[in-house]
Amino acid sequence: MKGKGLISTIIVGLVALVIVACGGPSRSGKLQDSADSLSYIIGMNIAYNIMEMDSTLKASQIMAGISDVMAGEPKISLEDGKFYLLSYMNYDVYDRVKKYENQYLEDLANSDKNIVRTRTGLTYRVNELGDMGNTASHPRDTVAIMYTAKTLAGAEVDALDNRPDTLRTTLTKLIDGLEEGVKLVGQGGKITLWMPSTLAYGAQGDEQKNIKPNEMLEYEVEIIEVKRRRR
Q1: Domains: count for the chain
Q2: Domain range for residue 142?
Q3: pTM across the whole model
């Protein structure tokens, strides 16, 4: 049957995880036989994966979907299921991420009068203004900066502070949030930036820097030097 591809691949992958992780049916539970044990373990693994994907999904409907398919009476066709799943992955998740980020940054700005939120969603706190007579503004202005970046959970990613050199680059080569943020203080300035994922690494993330898709980041930035392009 055509259309099983995406959904079946997910289920097969979950079963494989059960076999690899558990090595067979559990003997510690009070289940009647190996079929019961294996079925229960598969259910557990499905649940853990579902909670990691989206903890707001409804267990009752998930169980109904499993029961209906195993009874040969699904209420939604495979093609429709594939469409809804792709829609969820490509659009609905983004909408939820955006709403969460907006609420988080709004609450953050309201919690401290020194924290400001810009039209783009970048949220910042100036720690030191630096030399406001020497700020970067043109896309081809060159800046030397030191920074550390971390996730909202506090995990450090993409750190420069342990390197022997600074990052020297033109504004236009920085990610959008950094490009906007370094313009707000002058040479010698320090600033904290909270970036929605659209101003950081977006839906792609950056595996090499341990940045997940749709991840909001917090940057501590120091402007070491500004070299302005000749006007």
Answers
A1: 2
A2: 111-227
A3: 0.60
